[in-house]
Amino acid sequence: MVKGINLADHLDPTPRILMGPGPSNVNYRVYRAMMTPVIGYLDPQLLKCMDEISEMLRALFQTKNRVTLAISATGSAGMEASFVNFVEPGDTVIVGVNGFFAQRMTEVAERCGAKVIRVEEEWGKIVPPERLIKALQENPNAKICALVHGETSTGIKQPLEEVGEYCKKRDILFVVDAVTSLGGCELKVDEWGIDVCYSCTQKGLSVPPGLSPITVSPKAMDVLYSRKTKVQSFYLDLIKLEKYWGEERVYHHTAPASMLYALREGLRIIFEEGLEERFKRHEILSKRLRMELDQLGFKPFAQEGYRLPMLTSVILPSDVEDFPTRRRLLNEYRIEVGGGLGHLKGKIWRIGLMGETCQIQNIHALIAALKEILA
Amino acid sequence: MVKGINLADHLDPTPRILMGPGPSNVNYRVYRAMMTPVIGYLDPQLLKCMDEISEMLRALFQTKNRVTLAISATGSAGMEASFVNFVEPGDTVIVGVNGFFAQRMTEVAERCGAKVIRVEEEWGKIVPPERLIKALQENPNAKICALVHGETSTGIKQPLEEVGEYCKKRDILFVVDAVTSLGGCELKVDEWGIDVCYSCTQKGLSVPPGLSPITVSPKAMDVLYSRKTKVQSFYLDLIKLEKYWGEERVYHHTAPASMLYALREGLRIIFEEGLEERFKRHEILSKRLRMELDQLGFKPFAQEGYRLPMLTSVILPSDVEDFPTRRRLLNEYRIEVGGGLGHLKGKIWRIGLMGETCQIQNIHALIAALKEILA
């Protein structure tokens, strides 16, 4: 008997409609896949499963990058891997900063020893590509330019093409956070000149949190191979990860089999639907959600024309209390929506409509619940 | 349709009897727990689940350490967290090196900027405590002394008490790798003076791989809080992790809910059996396994008196081919056993008898299969 814990207690949390900034709801097929028996980390059957994941991730990222795999940790570790592998102490990194996760990028890069140059913009707006390109021109020694594609803290979808085009022609690595965007809207890694792109499993992919899909261009791998210092992280060392995921099959860590099974099934579901169909569904239903929210007095927060379909940020009407209302949604209606981060706390809500969650009946459930609460 | 992948394919790997160095077999209750609906990373129900995990981990580690949690990545990340949080560039770290994972410790510590002093011993033997204490005496500025409790590459169980006693009285942090030992044999973190102890989920706990339980003493947390430099890793920063797992509940990363459910259930199963009963089961059945293997000509590799009950290392008889025999065990009998690592490749086998796998019928199945193959 352990102090304070009744071992007879089963774990029976109330299921939620997950309309927050992630995780999103998980398809029952993904849960079922997690029941697949765990096998060894070098079992040929597991290696085949990993190969299939790589291949489907390539299709999802729209890339031919050989180094395309899932890091055995959450999206935050994907961010860390994207800097710790490519930054050497003293390197210059330019980051477009217009939200919580872009700020986190600067912190992660600084911990890796980077000299970080911030191109700041108001939260809720895009970082104008011309300002980024100007910063790159003014700092021709910059090694990395980093942007968040879908900023989870504000609901902004950052345009990437122009900056990618600029980096492609120079010795600059273009690092992109696709944590919220992957699987919910267009993301063309090769065409847009992205060198390193990481994401997570629990948002657009609708798989439980725990893995971080990542893809790395040959140009970025060359930079990695020509480092003067060792990558500080052993766990996130992409050369070692590539030797395990690639043909060599050198043991690096014990692959989280159950999570890999889940990711494989989540990816299968995505390709059964088709990327175009999936993106269209997110686009259409997010418009519907915005319209319904607008009628209840929740006005859009993110800059027009650059709104993420998977995450809608809205300004709270002055008569709506943030936390008590979200608590009622959770406790009485089993609906989770997200509050604001940082200085936006209490001011905005972030409503996710990602993957499995992106269904008309969930919009109806949320809007009806809000009408009852605010009546 | 994705190139080379038939989306109609279900994932149906042949189940295995996992008698390798890990993962071990998983109880069906743990799989069932993973079907529990994913909920948000700040959902009060998930936070309660995390509290229960912390409390059960404290009982398992036999510690009162407040900072006792599960890192959202595999055991290798636990190793990295144990060095990256406490090493500052130039610090001296003394590591007892008698196997593959102790070697990895030196690499991880060096990547963190440590000056590493190796106390080397032949693989398959313990590092004599007196040699470690002598090294500590000769290097009074050493900040950390690190040992692997259960060396997965050799089957050695390293004694910890004397070194712990020495470190306890001085400003030395005692870091212990309990990846293979936790849940299978006695491990007394507080009594033995261990400051940082990390493990994994997929061996003695019989939970799928993916998390790394860790416990950190107040003495170690003081060292962490008095660092002059920032912890290089954002993802593994224990101050940030403690703020999420502890009372403050500050968002750090999205907790891998399904894996936490699995860990909670695995821990429940352990405490239903009871620690003493569990350790006895491993002790008795590993003796039985050794006896049976001895009769087939597989002689023990690890030093007598210091053999891990959960992982038996044996020298291959000269007429037994390593890989073809293991392949037949896997393909014809569905039994996985581990080969040797490093210079022991082709020379020894490592046979796991951990948690759920530690059952008499599995020993019978392995021995009978070996008799057929070697007939």
Global morphology of chain A? globular
Strand proportion of chain A: 15-25%
CATH topology of the largest domain in chain A, by name, is Aspartate Aminotransferase, domain 2
* Corresponding CATH superfamily of the largest domain in chain A: Type I PLP-dependent aspartate aminotransferase-like (Major domain)
Tell me the Rg of chain A in angstroms: 21 Å
Subunit organisation of the chains: homodimer
Helix content of chain A: 25-40%
Q: Spatial order of the strands in the main sheet of chain A?
A: 2-10-9-8-5-3-4
- Mean pLDDT value of chain A: 97
**Straight-line distance between termini of chain A:** 48 Å
Strand element count of chain A: 14
Name the largest protein-protein interface in this structure.
A-B, 82 and 82 residues
Detailed description of the structure:
The structure is a homodimer of 375-residue chains. With 375 residues, chain A is an alpha/beta fold. The first copy, chain A, has two domains: 17-23 and 274-374, Aspartate Aminotransferase, domain 1; 28-270, Aspartate Aminotransferase, domain 2 (3-Layer(aba) Sandwich). Chain A has twelve helices and 14 strands. In chain A, the strands form three sheets. The first copy, chain A, has a seven-stranded mixed β-sheet, sandwiched between helices. The first copy, chain A, starts with 16 loop residues before the first strand and ends with a helix. The mean pLDDT of chain A is 97. Chains A and B meet through α1, α2, α3, α4 and α9 of A and α1, α2, α3, α4 and α9 of B.
